[in-house]
Fold this sequence. Notes:
There is one protein chain. The mean pLDDT is about 80. The relative contact order is 0.08. It contains 11 helices and no strands. The protein has helices at about 10-40, 45-65, 70-95, 105-125, 125-135, 140-165, 170-180, 180-215, 225-235, 240-255, 260-324. By secondary structure, it is an all-alpha fold.
Amino acid sequence: xxxxxxxxxxxxxxxxxxxxxxxxxxxxxxxxxxxxxxxxxxxxxxxxxxxxxxxxxxxxxxxxxxxxxxxxxxxxxxxxxxxxxxxxxxxxxxxxxxxxxxxxxxxxxxxxxxxxxxxxxxxxxxxxxxxxxxxxxxxxxxxxxxxxxxxxxxxxxxxxxxxxxxxxxxxxxxxxxxxxxxxxxxxxxxxxxxxxxxxxxxxxxxxxxxxxxxxxxxxxxxxxxxxxxxxxxxxxxxxxxxxxxxxxxxxxxxxxxxxxxxxxxxxxxxxxxxxxxxxxxxxxxxxxxxxxxxxxxxxxxxxxxxxxxxxxxxxxxxxxxxxx
Length: 324
C-alpha cells in the first residue's frame, strides 16, 4: 500500500496474494544462485544451464496449455515450483562425495558474508517502487512503456552476462590469485570487450530498433507514438546496459578478491545520492530527464567499482616503482 497508494483495493489484494506465493519460492531461488555460482566456479556450466532450460520450457508449456483459464496466482505457483524443482535437481548433482560434519561456523560464516550483499540488494530494489510513484501521475501507458523498456534492457544485460561474463567466473578467481595488477589487467581486457558488445547493441538499436519494435507490436495495434516513445526510452536507457554489465564484471572481481562489505556500502551510498537526483530530474524535465539520470547512475556506479579495483593496483605499482 505504501508503494502503490493509488491502486484499487481489489488489485491490491491480488498483489498481496501473489507476493505471498512468490515468497515460498524465494529461499529456493536464493539457493539456486549459490548452486549456480558453484557450478560456474567449477566450470560445470552445462550441469546448471541445461536443466534450467528444460525446466523453464516445461513451465512455459504448462502456462501456454492453460492460457485460456490462467490466473496470476497460478503463474506465481508455477514460478515458485520451478525454483523448487531446480533446487532439488541441483542438489542431487552437487551432493558431496563424502560425509562431513557441519559446525556452527559453517552456517554462520556464509550469512556474515552475505549480509552486506542482502542489505545492498534490498535497498536498490526500492527503485521500481520509486519509478511507479513518480510515473503514476503521468499520461496513461507511460509507466508500462518505461517498464517494458527496462525489461528489454534487462533481457539484453542478462544475455550478455549469461553468455559472455558468467563462463569467466573461474578466470576471475585465477586472476585474483595472481595479484592485484593481473586482476586489473584482466578487468581492463574484459571491459573493452563488454564495451564493444554494448556499443554494437546500442548502434543496432539506433538504426533498426524502431522498425523492429513496430514489427513486434504491429499485431496489437499499438499506437505509433507509443512505439516511438518506447524506442527513444530504450535509447536514453543505453547507460543501463553499459553500466549494468560492467557493474556485474567489477562486483564479480571485488567479491572474488574478498571485498564484500566495501562494494555493498558504496552501492548503498551511491543509491542514496541517486534517488533525490532522480526525483529532482523528473520534476524538472519529466520522463526523459529521469531516464538520463538513471543511465548516468548506472555508468557512474560502474566507474566507482572500477576505481575500487584499480586503486590498490595503482598503489602497488607506485610502491614497486618507488622501490626500484
